[in-house]
Every structure is written in C-alpha cells, then in structure tokens.
Design brief:
- It is a single chain.
- The strands form 3 sheets. A 9-stranded mixed beta sheet has the order 5-4-1-8-9-10-13-14-15, sandwiched between helices. A 4-stranded mixed beta sheet has the order 3-2-6-7.
- With 347 residues, it is an alpha/beta fold.
- Helix 2 packs across helix 9, helix 7 crosses helix 8 and helix 9 runs antiparallel to helix 10.
- It has one domain: 3-Layer(aba) Sandwich (UDP-N-acetylmuramoyl-L-alanine:D-glutamate ligase).
- The chain has 11 helices and 15 strands.
Length: 347
C-alpha cells in the first residue's frame, strides 16, 4: 500500500448493476408449451451492487459508493432505494432515459431447483470511461466487475488498441486507489483480448477456476470427478502474476481458495462444508467471497484473515436464494466454523 492509500477510506465499486427477477415455475416446459409461475421475487445482481450490499451487511465501518448506469424506470428506482437503505453513495450511479436498467429473468424449476437465465444488458452496455470520476473520491479501493459483460469498456480503443477498461484502471491508480477486478465466466476466446491487457493496472485480481483456465491455459481440474489439482492452482496463480497483476491474485472455487502475492508468498484457505439441506441458492457466492476479502484488505488484515472472512461470507450467502440477503455480520460469519467443518484442502 502506498502513502496515498494509507490516508484513504472506503470502497468505490463500478460496473454491472442488475435486478434479478426470480420466478419459481412448476416445471420447465417443452418448446411452445406453458409453465405456471408459482411465486415471484426480486434481488440484487452484478458485481458492484452485490459487493457493496454485502459489505453493508457485513457491517463495514468505511464509506461505500457505486458507479454505474441505470434506466429511468422502476428497477432503477428500486436499486437507488436499496442503496440508500444500505448506506451506499449513489452520486455516480446515474439514471438515463435511453436504456432500461439491466435485469435477468431467473426461471427456477420447482421440481429440480435448476435455474435458467434470460439477461437484458440494458444500461450496463453503455457504461464508458467518461462515466468514472476519480477526482473527488477519497475511497481506498476501486473495484470493477464484470469485465467481459460491459460492452463499452470491453471494446478496443481505436487509438491505443487496448480495451477501454485500461483507461479506467490507469486513472484510478493515478488518483491513488488500489484497484481490484473481477470478470464474468464467459465461454469464449475474448479473455486474451479483453482481460489480459488490463492486468498490469490491476492490483488485485479475483478469478474462479474457469476464468483462471481461460487466462492461463492451465487445466485446474482433472480426472473423471473433475477434482481441483493443488499444483495446477498454484501454477495458474503464478502465471497470472506474470501477466502483470501488481499485488495479488486470488483464485476461488467451491472447495477452497488460494492467493499469491507479488513476492511469491501463497496461502490456502479451505471453504466451509455447508450441507445441501442448508443451501437455498449459490447465486452471488463469488461476490460475497470477494466482498469479505476486500473488507479484510481495506482494514489491513493479514491475508490469511481476509481469506477466512471471504469464505465465511460466501458460506453465509448460501442461506438465501438471493445474492446478498443471507450474508451475515463479520462476527457472525467468523463463527460459522463452529457449525460447519472445513473442507479438506486439494492435494
């Protein structure tokens, strides 16, 4: 951490702001047939929205603020009201009239529990570098998510040839913020063109096993059971550091997490073995994990403690079908290991 970051406080998060319209149906219909909607609910979605709301629920003692674009519609108003309830500053969360607030229709099959997503990118597709103002913020950390799902930031600048997100991260670092990045698990070849050029301006990279494989070409799961391989995870983390990540790579997957820093120091943390009977949904678990880790990093905790809070926050998020309503306070999260055992670490 540099001197400028030491005098700062707060987390500023930008990127995808989404409303999830969750519909429980009586079964998935064949083409042209009808299914009945049994119940409807809504929830928050998107990296900045999830992480900021999770930090509020954890009880973060520092300021929270968002950057993004919303439609001038009911969903946009709902997000702004929810942010006010969770003390999230919305000065840079703008409503526009030319696009709808991004949303996902989440169809949950009541007979199997499986979900199908229909996503409207909406206003998120218009979020561009000029919407990010770092001149007045005193935040310590800037987090962006999800790269590969932000059309204007993903596109290549015609002058530099780099993704437009590079401009955002360069300005955030120049303003004195520690930068953090998460991307979406897109099954495409765009990781090399869109994500790799950004990494030299990223201090902390969060990636799951799928994303790490896409970026490094290293296979992390092998065998018929698809078991995570410890040596492969460590190799992938080091490879990502060599691609330019400045301070730390944090890899996460259901079984455990692994973090390595610029000095080559690595740390494993197992996840909690929450029984399936206690799991109401897995949506948002990755963002809950990232929120817990960023909380610890903001408070200058040892990385081992930050990773522990991250996996405990992720475990608590499983107690509710929405992305954030299950997240507990920091103290409650850290006591979950009294109720659930730690998973064995990969070998």
């Amino acid at each position: 951490m540099n001197t400028s970051q030491a005098t700062r406080a707060g987390l500023l998060a930008g990127g995808n702001w989404i409303v999830d319209h969750v519909k429980l149906i009586d079964g998935w219909p064949p083409q042209d047939a009808l299914a009945n909607i049994l119940s409807e609910s809504w929830g928050n979605g998107g990296s900045p929205y999830n992480i900021l709301k999770n930090l509020s629920r954890l009880g973060a003692p520092f300021p929270l603020a968002g950057i993004g674009l919303l439609g001038d519609d009911a969903d946009g108003a709902r997000i702004l009201a929810d942010c006010r309830r969770h003390r999230i500053d919305t000065a840079q969360l703008r409503q526009i009239g030319c696009a709808a607030t991004a949303y996902s229709d989440v169809m949950t099959d009541g007979t199997t529990g499986r979900r199908t997503f229909f996503h409207q990118r909406g206003a998120n597709a218009l979020l561009a570098p000029e919407h990010f103002d770092f001149s007045a913020t005193q935040a310590k950390i800037f987090h962006l998510g999800y790269l590969l799902l932000l059309d204007q930031l993903d596109q290549l600048d015609p002058v530099t040839g780099d993704p437009c997100a590079v401009n955002v991260f360069c300005r955030a670092r120049a303003a004195g913020l520690l930068t953090s990045l998460d991307c979406v698990s897109e099954n495409s070849g765009r990781f090399h063109a869109v994500v790799k050029p950004v990494l030299p301006d990223v201090d902390v990279l969060f990636a799951n096993d799928f994303e790490a494989e896409k970026l490094t070409g290293i296979t992390l799961r092998t065998g018929a059971d698809g078991r995570i391989q410890r040596a492969a995870v460590e190799a992938a983390a080091r490879a990502l550091m060599r691609l330019g990540v400045r301070d730390r790579v944090v890899l996460h997957f259901p079984e455990a997490v692994y973090a390595v820093d610029a000095h080559g120091s690595g740390h494993w943390q197992p996840s909690l073995a929450v029984p399936s009977s206690a799991i109401k949904g897995t949506a948002g678990a990755g963002d809950a994990f990232a929120g817990g880790v960023l909380y610890g990093m903001h408070e200058n905790w040892p990385i081992t403690d930050a990773l522990r809070l991250g996996v405990c926050a992720a475990a608590s998020s499983l107690f509710d079908a929405t992305c954030s309503e299950g997240v507990l306070t920091v103290d409650q999260c850290l006591r979950l290991d009294a109720a659930y055992p730690w998973r064995p670490l990969p070998v």
